[in-house]
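pasting for ref
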Amino acid sequence: MRTYKTQMEAAKKGIITPEMKIVAEKEYTSPEKIMESVAKGEVAIPCNINHKSISPEGIGAGLKTKINVNLGISGDCKNYDVEMQKVDMAIKFGAEAIMDLSNYGKTNTFRRELIEKSPAMIGTVPMYDAIGYLEKDLLEITAEDFLKVVRAHAEEGVDFMTIHAGINRRAVEAFMRDKRKMNIVSRGGSLLFAWMMMTGNENPFFEYYDKVLDILEEFDVTISLGDALRPGCIDDSTDAGQISELIELGDLTKRAWERNVQVMVEGPGHMAMNEIAANMTFQKRLCHNAPFYVLGPLVTDIFPGYDHITSAIGGAIAAASGADFLCYVTPAEHLRLPDLNDVKEGIIASKIAAHAADIAKGVPHARDKDNEMAQARHKVDWEEMFKVAVDPEKARAYFESTPPADRHTCSMCGKMCAVRTTNMILEGKTVEFCTEK
């Protein structure tokens, strides 16, 4: 019988939960250290009490950088089987989180199946689901209606929810004063902005924030404070709207912690490389070192079809500079709903960024697999290389597509392979290319 409602409440009481023990083992640290970080809010363990299949993960300072995969049903792409194949792919390649961003029809059927099978933590954006779930147009939705959707998602077992509570009237005023090239590019943020402007009311998630926290506390749902005013192009980054909202998110972070609700804070989407490190510092300072969740950031705007790469560059810099959680971006970003291959490319690009950052940050054991690969390459042991590779099928397919005459090399260098040459010399052998057969 739990004597606490949330992981944060347990941590503040000095209780080490089963989830903290699992996270500690995964992170090569002690449960006590995880407990202390959760109590301070520097680490979150999103883990809804109704998500029974979850394998808990920690997100935050000193831990491995985690990645999230977005998927879901839209009006133009309603194939549930394909979306579930994307789920299987995300799990196969080790994504720690999956966000269901479905915005068409009765989404709870897909979401319940997802929660039932997924060991990855599940996130949603209730604002996306409001119109379909409530079967009302935006202007007809009330503040109480929005809360009903939050409760429905919590009851289903969602582990974290993006709630755009920071786009209040103060933040909107700053946004309106400082003209942007791209205005608001957050889907949830734009819907709330439209609702506020049409009704003349305050953001309901801000006005009734305590009621939101009541629901999240009841089911131990982590709030991911959404950045409705995130920059949608590099020219809009670090402007008054973005920073004004971030200040609001810092206050909302403290209010959630006072209620023992775990918090993540979401960050910029498009940003030039030279601004990224400073933005990570701003967030950690203004939001009291809460875990930071970033989309990209994309470091240039002119490579549609390749935005998994522009995102991976920004994500690696962001994570090395303090971000804790990366949202993947696929080659289909800005163009269409991603297909299975897009999802794979996005996952791998994001995993590269996260892993590279973990090496740079000195996360415990981050280099272990790289050292294993180096040893396998030193021995020119192809089977061992494929075993260590994150995507062994692709590595093997490339190797076998142009097989070398000598299996101790590859088809690029052949017998002039530097590793082979050096190994032979160190073994006391003579290297004679013209006479070797």
